Amino acid sequence: MIEERFAEGQSVIHRTDPALRVVAATVFSFSAALIDSVAALLLALLFAVVLALAARLPVRPLCKRLAAAGSLLLLVWLVIPLTYAGEPLLSWGPLAASREGVRLCLVITLKTISILMTFTALVATMHLATLGHTLHRLGVPPKLVQLLLLAYRYSFVIAHEYQRLLRAAKMRNFRPTTRLHTYKTYAYLVGMLFVRASERARRVHLAMKCRGFNGRFHCLVSYAATPWNPVLGAAVLLVSAGLVAIHWLGWG
Amino acid sequence: MHISEGYLSASVLISGGALAAAGTAIGLKRLDYDQIAQAGILASAFFVASLVHVPIGPANVHLIMNGLLGLLLGWAAFPVILAALLLQAVFFQYGGITTLGVNTVIMAAPAVAVYFLFGRWIGRPGWVGMAAAFCGGAGAIVLAAIVMAASLFFTDEQFLSLAVTAVAIHVPILIIEGVITLFCVGFLKKVKPELLPHAFADKQTSRGVA
Asked: What is the pTM of this model?
């Protein structure tokens, strides 16, 4: 049900300092999100592809993930060109696709793909536990980090719990259809999930107290300084600055 | 329910981020360290519930359940939803860094709103309690769709058609969410009323405990 597809790996990106990766992904994402020049976004897409190659992301799962964003993009391509005001580019009878509308769709598509691909290459290549510790190092409030780490740790357990409940229901001949009975069953399943989550939280909390938990999860993995750290940092900064520069100079 | 990367303007992204940060700060303040385990594991339950697909005619939709979470947690829904969205981003790359704030507001602000609007009625027996639970579940979706449409509209007024389409898609979802929240609250009232703060307080008062 849940898996971290990209977290395991031996690529350069996987070995780079996670804090650097999180900051780099943030800087790049915001630079790409805030510009709307097609030339700059093509550069952003190219950079995202380079990062994905450097992280040696498996192609098929990556495409699947990008396709998930595609359904909304499809809606955009269907709606925006026809409704956006501007000079017509193509027209069929009463329908006309405006030049500005098509350009906007292209901009959105490039942004979505390059930002998501960069995020996958830089952030999804670490386990969420690592991300939690990294966020702590970067100054995110400890309560939020603890909440995130516990949510991560127990999401697998709760997913398993849900599959057990569903299997038990199926054994009793539960077949999902569009009927009130189905919704009632799912409501009780979800209700039971919350009940079990809360019961487990009580036990986990007591167990943590017994072991003298003092509000800090320790991280056992350390990242040696590799020559790739400054290379990645510099590359991301340069490209982000380049994107903003192209946007402000008004090319494309 | 979320907006993907690359759609929204700078001002919308930044205001979304600021509002999410404020809401999360309030939520974290209301949680003390002894409640973090509860909040964290309820965040995993909320995350798993969002993977549950229910059939609707030939298609199926996934549950959202932000209304139920709001009724259970009040302000703490903000950090819990933020954590669940981060899980979704890292596991499935639904959304990324720039839209995290806006998406947290889209889901969590309605959750907090239904807590204050309908929370105190769900403890009532009979029709009133059931109607409040339905309105909590359906209302959270309506409000979330409105916030989502607003963030598209404030990005570009010509996104109106897209925003309207996005809201229209949510009409069947709000009915399903309302019905499921109704049954779910009924179930929790019987099985574990202490999860529902308002309902539990009512029960205690009527017994003369509190």
From this structure: 0.93
